[in-house]
Write a structure and sequence with these properties.
The protein is an all-beta fold and 434 residues long. It is 0% helix and 48% strand. The strands form six sheets. Strands 14, 15, 16, 17, 18, 19, 20, 21 and 22 form a nine-stranded mixed beta sheet that branches. It comes from Ornithinimicrobium pekingense. InterPro entries: ConA-like_dom_sf (IPR013320), Glyco_hydro_32 (IPR001362), Glyco_hydro_32_AS (IPR018053), Glyco_hydro_32_C (IPR013189), Glyco_hydro_32_N (IPR013148), Glyco_hydro_beta-prop_sf (IPR023296). This is Beta-fructosidase levanase/invertase.
């Protein structure tokens, strides 16, 4: 039995495969999570948009499939926006439509076989039902790997960031009505480029302590992540409405240094808050994880902010939306100190060991003895990462939700997400200072 491995506060699908979050949007008090799913099984395929909602980002209700694959088209990743001004003309009455931009992956049966292009669907009932636009696709480059549109409202109009995945490039487009798009600029390759680039996001944040604001470009890559396999990086810079320009010397940072955090994107229509969710898995072994009746979960929702590091560079800080009913452990490791946290089952088995070494500026997660680790040779059992520059003590928060562990250090300047598959719930914590 694997029921004890299903998280209670990280969203999981009832009985299907799941990967990237899609179409994150906040509407009328509900947080909508759309996601890549196979509605017909627990393996990747038949890609469609699943749908779940939450009033608080912690308690989720799964709904019917929102956008289902068809004979000619698989529905790959994309985004949803609230078209407040009805620029698309798709609204009815006074209620603004929700507009989804998604990637059409055309099958061999399609006249467009072998290509990917961006298509549109819309909803006038708060995201519960969707209609595909008759003129799809709305943006085509005659490319096999043009995908994952993330759309946002800007002073210059609607802006889309998407990827030419194999070229390791982010391509930017602008539209006045979400239907007709013009190319603006291209970014990359830069930073980590071992794997294909996917699932971009671009947003502006104030820099805490000032001055001004900065723009954050997030992009995931299918291989070459910080712990092996897939991962997500981000760049900080400026966006002038046409071009994203990273700060001098910025070649990217990891959004999460663990093995199980991918395709993180942010919600639309959240006011001044910027809230992100990622897929808590890894392409290297996601298809083999030992949960045979469902597959994978999302991360906790994280509110992100920008703060200047000791060197003066803006760095993302992430803070989870936290429930009170999960196992949580807070540590403060003194300057130069070393602390080990061991989490086990009630009877002391299946240890998960986290070591925070403030003297060596290093954090290590050892999951080599924490339950099932043999299901894939690509499942890393020891994860190590440098702690970013700090002065003095290191604060750490560890959150455990069945098979997902999230670590937040230095007030969220470093995060580490990892899956574990113990034989029973991890309920016991022991702390040792060395």
């Amino acid at each position: 039995m694997t029921s004890h491995l299903r998280p209670t506060r990280h969203f999981t699908p009832r009985s299907t495969w799941m990967n990237d979050p899609n179409g994150l949007v906040h509407v009328d008090g509900l947080w909508h999570l759309f996601f890549q799913t196979n509605p017909e099984g627990v393996d990747w395929g038949n890609m469609s948009w699943g749908h779940a909602t939450s009033p608080d980002l912690l308690t989720w209700t799964e709904h019917d499939v929102a956008l289902r694959f068809s004979e000619h088209e698989a529905v790959f990743s994309g985004s949803v926006v609230v078209d407040h001004d009805n620029t698309s003309g798709l609204g009815e009455g006074d209620a603004p439509p929700l507009v989804a931009l998604y990637t059409s992956h055309y099958k061999p049966t399609s006249p467009r076989a072998g290509t990917q292009a961006q298509s549109l669907a819309w909803s006038t009932d708060g995201g519960m039902t969707w209609r595909r636009f008759a003129g799809n696709p709305v943006l085509c480059r005659q490319s096999a790997d043009f995908r994952d549109p993330k759309v946002f409202r800007h002073a210059t109009g609607w802006v889309m960031v998407a990827v030419e995945a194999d070229h390791r490039q982010v391509v930017l487009y602008r539209s006045g009505d979400l239907l007709a798009w013009e190319h603006l600029s291209t970014f990359g390759p830069l930073g980590a480029t071992e794997g294909v680039w996917e699932c971009p996001d671009l947003f502006e944040l104030p820099v805490e302590g000032g001055p001004g604001t900065a723009w954050v470009l997030v992009v995931s890559l299918g291989a070459g992540g910080p712990a092996g396999g897939s991962g997500t990086q981000y760049f900080v810079g400026d966006f002038d409405g046409t071009t994203f320009t990273p700060l001098p010397g910025d070649t990217g940072r990891w959004l999460d240094v663990g093995p199980d955090h991918y395709a993180a994107v942010s919600f639309d229509n959240t006011g001044e808050r910027r809230v992100m969710i990622g897929w808590a898995s890894n392409w290297a072994y996601a298809h083999r994880t030992p949960t045979p009746t469902w597959r994978s979960s999302m991360s906790l929702a994280r509110e992100v902010s920008l703060r200047r590091s000791r060197e003066g560079r803006p760095v993302l800080h992430q803070h989870p939306v936290l429930p009170e009913d999960l196992l949580q452990q807070r540590l403060v490791v003194p300057a130069g100190g070393r602390t080990t946290l061991t989490l086990t089952t009630e009877d002391g088995r299946d240890p998960l060991v986290l070591t925070v070494d403030a003297g060596q500026d290093r954090i290590t997660l050892d999951r080599s003895r924490c339950g099932d680790v043999t299901f894939s040779p690509d499942f890393p059992t020891l994860v190590e990462a440098p702690l970013p520059g700090h002065a003095g003590a290191v604060d750490v928060l560890v959150v455990v939700d069945a098979s997902v562990v999230e670590v937040y250090a230095l007030d969220g300047a470093l995060t580490l997400t990892a899956q574990v598959f113990p034989a029973a719930p991890l309920t016991t914590a022991q702390v040792r200072d060395d």
